[in-house]
């Protein structure tokens, strides 16, 4: 290969996912293509010859309907500034398709694409010094990728063909001036991906070695965190979708691979608001819900694979959830559908959430050998 990789990509040795998914995606007329290759020094970004050297430049240039092509290599959110600011993230523009896995400039065919050969890494490891067991992470980005208020009616917003690694969401203070401008943005959730109010499609991405943890054991969604707030534009069946993705070696207090969190209560009793997510043909394995060097609080660490909290609708289709471990609760999937405030245990059914708008569904999905201290560890 023409370039050295800073990250030894684990997805090359990951088990191949069975099956294929065909998706018809929205496009727009007069869309532009933008090119990113870290070996180039272009300022136009309109071809591989003039490619931007940083992904930040490519994302800043793109608008709804555009596609950003990214060559193999490792990219960090501070490539452009070099500041090492932990609040820096790759922010995905609404209606833009971002594709990794390209061979890039100077090869036999610059549009050659193979996400397993031309590995494109989005890393929160600014200094390139991450060690084993999550050491040397105190200077990493809180969130590698952020998607916020993604709801374009014309063009789909897609992240396709990346390895997302090195996110370290470990700050227990709420970000009062988040990069998205949205309130309630927590630095202890979503080390790899933080998606809020977003109809986002994530395809063929590997989430590996990301973490979400805080001193109070509140950190959730080490690999990915999906949520909404009261201002969410998402309506109907619109949701975040993961297709042919892999989650492995992520850690968090809860939901080490994935966390999906809804609102505590409906803002409109006649129109329940749920956080909705679908995982299709995804592999979730060898994630762990504890964090090295910390004592877990009883009852707070669990669900190494997935943590589904409050008003959520989550569907697993043809997925495998296996060999995940937890310290205190479920090694597999933990779903806590919260009652309305003021409801006590054993109160009448009307005090429970509207289960037509809150639940977990699995189709053709294997849940196997997930371990925790509870006798029933595969699911709850």
Commentary on this structure:
The structure is a single chain. The protein has one helix at 55-61; strands at residues 33-36, 67-71, 73-75, 90-91, 97-102, 120-123, 145-150, 157-160, 163-165, 168-169, 174-175, 185-186, 193-198, 200-203, 206-208, 211-212, 224-227, 240-243, 246-248, 251-252, 258-261, 275-280, 283-285, 306-309, 312-317, 320-322, 333-336, 359-363, 366-368. It is mainly beta and 380 residues long. It has a domain at 124-368. Strands 1-2-5-8-14-18-22-25-28 form a 9-stranded parallel beta sheet, with helices on one face. Helix 1 (55-61) links the parallel strand 1 (33-36) and strand 2. Mean pLDDT is 80; it is low at 1-20, 266-271, 296-300, 344-348 and 375-380.
Short structural summary:
The chain is mainly β and 380 residues long.
What's the count of strands?
29
Which structural class should the secondary elements be placed in? Answer: mainly beta
Q: Which radius of gyration do the C-alpha atoms yield? A: 20 Å
Strand content: 25-35%
**Sheet with the most strands: spatial strand order:** 1-2-5-8-14-18-22-25-28
How would a crystallographer describe the biggest sheet?
9 strands, parallel
């Amino acid at each position: 290969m023409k370039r050295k990789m800073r990250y030894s990509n684990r997805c090359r040795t990951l088990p191949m996912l069975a099956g294929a998914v065909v998706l018809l995606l929205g496009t727009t007329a007069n869309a532009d293509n933008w090119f990113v290759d870290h070996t180039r020094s272009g300022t136009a970004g309109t071809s591989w010859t003039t490619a931007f050297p940083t992904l930040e430049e490519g994302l800043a240039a793109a608008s709804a309907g555009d596609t950003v092509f990214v060559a193999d290599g490792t990219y960090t959110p501070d490539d452009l500034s070099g500041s090492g600011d932990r609040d820096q993230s790759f922010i995905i523009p609404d209606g833009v398709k971002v594709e990794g896995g390209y061979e890039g400039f100077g090869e036999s065919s610059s549009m050659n694409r193979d996400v397993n050969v031309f590995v494109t890494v989005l890393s929160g490891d600014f200094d390139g010094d991450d060690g084993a067991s999550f050491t040397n992470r105190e200077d990493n980005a809180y969130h590698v990728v952020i998607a916020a208020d993604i709801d374009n009616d014309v063009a789909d917003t897609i992240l396709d063909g990346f390895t997302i690694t090195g996110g370290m969401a470990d700050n227990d203070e709420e970000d009062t001036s988040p990069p998205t401008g949205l309130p309630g943005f927590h630095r202890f959730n979503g080390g790899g991906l933080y998606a809020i109010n977003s109809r986002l499609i994530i395809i063929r991405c590997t989430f590996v070695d990301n973490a979400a943890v805080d001193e109070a054991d509140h950190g959730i969604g080490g690999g990915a965190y999906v949520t909404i707030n009261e201002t969410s534009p998402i309506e109907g069946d619109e949701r975040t979708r993961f297709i042919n993705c892999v989650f492995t070696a992520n850690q968090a207090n809860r939901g080490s691979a994935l966390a999906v969190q809804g609102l505590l209560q409906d803002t409109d009793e006649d129109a329940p608001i749920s956080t909705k997510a679908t995982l299709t043909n995804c592999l979730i394995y060898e994630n762990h819900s504890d964090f090295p060097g910390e004592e877990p609080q009883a009852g707070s660490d669990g669900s190494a694979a997935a943590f589904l909290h409050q008003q959520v609708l989550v569907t697993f289709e043809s997925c495998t959830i296996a060999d995940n471990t937890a310290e205190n609760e479920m090694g597999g999937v933990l779903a806590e559908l919260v009652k309305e405030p003021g409801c006590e245990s054993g109160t009448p059914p009307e005090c429970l959430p509207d289960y037509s708008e809150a639940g977990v569904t699995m189709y053709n999905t294997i849940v196997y050998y997930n371990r925790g201290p509870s006798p029933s560890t595969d699911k709850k």
